[in-house]
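>> Question from a student workshop board

For tomorrow's exercise we were told to take the sequence and the ligand below, predict the bound structure, and bring the output to class. My setup keeps failing. Could a helper post the expected result so I can at least see what it should look like? The ligand is phenylalanine.
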Amino acid sequence: MTNTRKSIHGSWSSRLAFVLAATGSAVGLGNIWKFPYITGEHGGGAFVLVYLACIAVIGIPIMMAEVMLGRRGRQSPINSMRTLAEEAGVSRRWSWLGWSGVLAGFFILSYYSVIAGWALAYVFRAISGTFTGATAEGIASIFERLTDDPERLMGWHTLFMVMTMIVVARGVRGGLERAVRFLVPALFVLLLLLDGYAMASGAFDQGLAFLFKPDFSKIDANGVLIAMGHAFFTLSLGMGAIMVYGSYLPQRASIAKTSITIALLDTLVALLAGMAIFPIVFANGLEPAAGPGLIFQTLHIAFGHMTGGVVFGTLFFVLLVFAAWTSSISLIEPAVAWLVENRGMSRVRASVLAGVATWLFGLLTVFSFNLWAQFRPLGFIDIFRNATVFDLLDYLTANIMLPLGGLFIALFSVWVMKRGDSLDELGMRDAFGYRLWRVLVRYVTPVAVIIVFLNVTGMVDFSGLLGLSG
Ligand code: PHE
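>> Workshop helper replied:
Here is what the output should look like for this input. Compare the format with yours to find the bug.
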């Protein structure tokens, strides 16, 4: 049956606007901050390969499924899932999928905002020339001084949350569409510039080899889970952000084409960031496994020594803040849309309420870097022996909640929803494309997610099969 529902929140002005907004959601700290440091921690090439495979066979099909469910439901993920479950004649409890997404978004944004706060702080450090001519040690100590200070972190975290609330309060079109139109191209240009610098740094080959030469003895079952989790995280999948953006998508736009474009742009940004960072890491004898501080401790070596470094360094962090900003609004939008729909709140009230709650929860992350830096809540489990509260939140959301959310989105789209409805909503004229999508979402995604989960819990050991180390 053809879908005639309308969103009460408005809609994107065009297909391009949706692509930009969804790309804005996808491209964020995940690409520029997280991808390089987790790649560094998990040995490089093999990790990158698993991540790329997950983008292709899990990420793109799930993105299509999420956009489709959103556009068909035309409401917040919680209400869309309920409506679609009714339409398919199954239990309304599927709305729980929306709730778990809201919770995941809440957890993610709580730490995302703290890290985005670091980027904000670095805009001001870069503009004042702090890094000019600085040594690697000097740069590392600047980072430590920032993260050691809970009050300063709290201040930047507050500023970032306020910025997020302002945009979300203004609604779908106001400001956001315009910001992403400029941001995405500018970010590309700057990353290319950094890649140019990295190419001249003397260790470009070593950086490329690290990223693209897979050595499967360097990745274990947990590394595979983290690569898969990151595929969900970086594409904003499994929690309803893309679903809610899909609910504002004009009816005729092609879901397959837009999803592929978004995934390609997102992957390109991550690879460009990796190609900029690792040559600098190796040329300066730094540690690829330095953890969350990696980009904050390496890029300045480049900026500190290139002509125009103050300008480029400042611009880089401005763009990073923008990238994080266009992601953070999508993390909170599912909750805000629900508050408007079900609690009759204005967007302003809903944004403030959701924002303040997230801000409060974010203090856990603030303290993870200073007052509670030695606190290891799950230290008795081997893979968590060094994990702080922040690390655990990140692990729980990216590696467990998002893939689980994705799994249920997959199950719903092809096992519950009527074939005719998904075919109609996806509007794919190409019968082969539709069948390929269906096979991937029906079998490949669920099986892959379940295998990776079982493997990490040690319940089943497929490592030998995959040629992994542990
Ligand atoms: N995709 C964003 C990034 O890479 C993070 C994000 C995750 C945004 C989940 C929305 C939902 O930074």
